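chain below, 114 aa
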Amino acid sequence: MSKNRYRNPLKTPWLMRIVFGSVTLAAIFAAFVVLQNRQVKQGDRIHEAERAIVQLDKEVEMWEARIEGQLDRAELKRRLEWVESDLEEISAAQIFHLAPEDEVAALPKVAVVE
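prediction:
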């Protein structure tokens, strides 16, 4: 009766299956984490690009407002007086209008498609 009565419930094939399953699950979870991190980084880059677009839109609006202010006749007159410019106002009678059929000899001829 000196026979060893201990029986190993986990044989080698079952132990290999458990190890294989554990390694497979670990690889799946690691891949999931890596993909999530990539997605978060990509989302951060997209968010940063959107913020840059909004900033550029604000800058464009600011420049448009400045240009409008520069083109405003009253603003232009005030600035010219401030820098003491010798420019004078032009009246409507001093403006020369050319009709398209009139030709001016000094100007180069331009082809017109009708």
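Helices lie at 12-71, 73-82. Residues 10 and 16 are 10 Å apart (CA to CA).
thats it, cya
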